[in-house]
Amino acid sequence: DGGITQSPKYLFRKEGQNVTLSCEQNLNHDAMYWYRQDPGQGLRLIYYSQIVNDFQKGDIAEGYSVSREKKESFPLTVTSAQKNPTAFYLCASSLQGTALFLPQHFGDGTRLSIL
Amino acid sequence: SQQGEEDPQALSIQEGENATMNCSYKTSINNLQWYRQNSGRGLVHLILIRSNEREKHSGRLRVTLDTSKKSSSLLITASRAADTASYFCATPTGRNTGFQKLVFGTGTRLLVSP
């Protein structure tokens, strides 16, 4: 079955450490997204990518970095510059980023906590 | 800033009852989407309604859209315990061309008791 796989499900970060969250999709989608979800809040967009080798900052990109070297992969690195990284991180994809009426498909998330 | 705001924030009902949740948004849109999120899981797309549609059905779900009031409602009929989840509305911020970013509301937490 096609879908989006995020790993790991739980991740712990030490002070000053960079950590990378994995997101892989086999839906053949062009567009991919990273969101952050905090308790009681909606999803906030961190980064998005319309096509391979292209990505753009979202609303809360500071302290995060991404790459899009392959169509199916969009890893997110939470750097030590992100002072409040504890959150639930969701990866999503859509067939095309510019199409008006396409839904987004989500992975099951990675919960990141500080040690 | 949030584009969509859901109301109520939380809703508790018994199995078999109907659940209604509302979403208000700020700017003009070309479509509005509803998603469900089970605890600790990702979001699942439920239904998309276009700006020229007033009502749409999918199984036990009924969505309405009132563009004059910039609001939408999601009705779940004959609710089941398995409907317990958070429900989010989402609207695209792009214009009719260009990249379509979705902006999500803060969600309604629905609890359906047996």
Structural description of this entry:
The complex is a heterodimer of chains A (115) and B (114). In chain A, strands 2, 4, 5, 6, 9, 10 and 11 form a 7-stranded mixed beta sheet that branches. Chain A contains no helices and 11 strands. Chain A starts with a strand and ends with a strand. By secondary structure, chain A is mainly β. Chain A is 0% helix and 45% strand. Chain B is an all-beta fold. In chain B, strands 2, 4, 5, 9, 10 and 11 form a 6-stranded mixed beta sheet that branches. The mean pLDDT of chain B is 92. The interface between A and B is medium-sized, with 29 and 28 residues.
Keywords:
heterodimer, A: 115 residues, mainly beta, seven-stranded mixed beta sheet, four-stranded antiparallel beta sheet, 45% strand, globular, B: 114 residues, 11 strands, 0% helix, 56% strand
Topology:
The complex is a heterodimer of chains A (115) and B (114).
Chain A: E1 4-7, E2 10-13, E3 19-25, E4 31-37, E5 43-49, E6 56-57, E7 64-66, E8 76-78, E9 87-94, E10 105-106, E11 110-114
Parallel strand pairs in A: 2-11
Antiparallel strand pairs in A: 1-3, 3-8, 4-5, 4-9, 5-6, 7-8, 9-10, 9-11
Chain B: E1 4-7, E2 10-14, E3 19-25, E4 31-37, E5 43-50, E6 55-58, E7 61-66, E8 71-76, E9 85-92, E10 102-104, E11 108-113
Parallel strand pairs in B: 2-11
Antiparallel strand pairs in B: 1-3, 3-8, 4-5, 4-9, 6-7, 7-8, 9-10, 9-11
